[in-house]
Amino acid sequence: MNLFESFVSAWGEWMTQMSLQLIFVVLFIGVLDRLLYRWVRPQLLYALWGLVFLKLVISPHWSSSFSVVQFFNLSKKPTDSGNAPIHEVVESSGIGAEFWLFSIWFGITLVLGVISITRYRRQKKWYLSTVKSSLPKEFQSLYQEVGKKLNFKILPKVMLSEKIQSPFTFGFLKAQILLPADLVRRGNEGQLEHVLTHELTHIKKWDPQQALVQHVLQLLYWFHPLVYFAGKRIRVLREVRCDYQSLEYLRQNGDQYKSTLLTLGFEATKPNYSGALHFGFSSSELISRLNWLERKQKTFGLKERLLTTLIVGGVLLCGLPLSQADSRVRAHSSSRNPSSSNSGVEVVEVPNKAPVQNSVIDLPPGDVEEAQSALEHAQGCFQRRYVIFQLLAKENQSSDKVAFKGE
Prior knowledge:
By secondary structure, the protein is an alpha+beta fold.
């Protein structure tokens, strides 16, 4: 098996196990969301749904003694009997189904990536072409005052445009704020302060960069509907978290802020701009944000931070590692077992003829079954090593390439 075939096999194993494990993770976090929705702040729910995207970059073979799978005994210890057949794999020509699946996935991912980059560049060019108005002096002083509240040393660039109806933050690596020129001309200082605080909070919390990572992962897992479901949920929670944080900076109640959100939110431009974090969103998401703001506002203090850390850490240790050491070995072996796929290989069963010597070990009566299981496993390993040695000796005397699959 060459390097490319090994890569395709590893990709198939990763995607298969990740897709199945992701179902459990989304259901688990979805249940927690429903249970905690009325009692916790959006920062906690945002962090929990962020674990879904963290799961997408963690190996599906990650195991933990605290994992929930340990309590359900989802895997059994592998036992190797002395009469177990040994698989000898002989390579043959041919292209398996796994190769075609990888080709389809790679092609669609590449097309979606090119479309996303092209769309982002075209929209960025259009945004910059609409910037014509200069910033009034009164606005500049207000912007600097808001920046000091949020402890910004260097303020992001702000631009005005006649072609947009809703303010938003644009860009990933170097975020910029784009405001409707009509909003600045109206001169409502309260609304401008709310908008600037909201957009600067996005930048302060690294939301553009997080949105970029989310978008890339959605492209890689374009075939999994639960990834889009989690992405939609975390997008709303990102805005709600930003609303709550903005109110803490403003030190106001939510009534004036909700009024600004209602006024500007429904004026939002309907197209979903790539790389844009809007002050206003679609109607359903806007209603969800307003419902969150109806609650009594509390400061996100040390107590809330410790609670969030404990819950997120518990889910990280118990809900994300969904593999056990034994099941991981079995999954690794089965994924490379040519009999389970059309990868163009021939499987030959070799009878186990290795001599076995029984051993006698004095142990307490309560440990007899465990000792017998361990002895059977050790005997099976010895027999497999013995057959490997014989096959390698034969391989040196012949010109045929024989690949042997061991433990």
